[in-house]
Amino acid sequence: ALDPQTTDSILGLLSDINERLGLTIVLITHEMHVIRKICHRVAVMENGKVVEEGDVLNVFLKPKEEMTKRFVQQVTEPVETQETLKHFLEETTSGRTIKLTFVGEAAESPLITQIIRKFNVEVNILQGKISQTQDGAYGSLFIHVDGHENEVNDVVDFIKSRQVEAEVITNV
């Protein structure tokens, strides 16, 4: 129940202690942004049992358990993102809406520029976010691609060839 500035100060202090003294720190929290910011590993518990564990980056990118998916969604796809996408999908009658998931160096690549230069399609950026963990960057970007069906299919293949996960949300 701390204000954001105080929380960040305490998390910075804990990270510093961990690095300088090599101490293991165990945090128990429901705040996924805290885990993302300072933890190296995470374990998710349900009914007193560990149901999922691993490196923070791996668990955030590919949560296996429903409970973990709900927790991770707090920081990867907040309510505003879901509402924006829902509204957009209701209004859109053509093209495809695609969720891109970036990890590490792929998060720094000018992928959208490459798509626009290479393909005869229109690209609309709907929502995006890049976050840092102790193990590297990850991010998601929601785009809408419109154009001839073959070109749109080629765009999806191109994205995947760049080590970026592409999940088609709509296929109209």
Instruction: State the helicity in percent bands.
Output: 40-55%
Total number of beta strands: 6
Written as H for each helix and E for each strand, in order along the chain, the element string is HHEEHHHEHEEHE
CATH class of the largest domain: Alpha Beta
Describe the structure in your own words:
The structure is a single chain. This protein is an alpha+beta fold. It folds into two domains: 4-76, no CATH class; 79-168, 2-Layer Sandwich (Alpha-Beta Plaits). Helix content is 44%, strand content 28%. The chain contains seven helices and six strands; from the N terminus they run H-H-E-E-H-H-H-E-H-E-E-H-E. Strands 4-5-3-6 form a four-stranded antiparallel β-sheet, with helices on both faces. It has a two-stranded antiparallel sheet with strand order 1-2. Strand 4 (122-133) and strand 5 form a beta hairpin. The chain starts with a helix and ends with a strand.
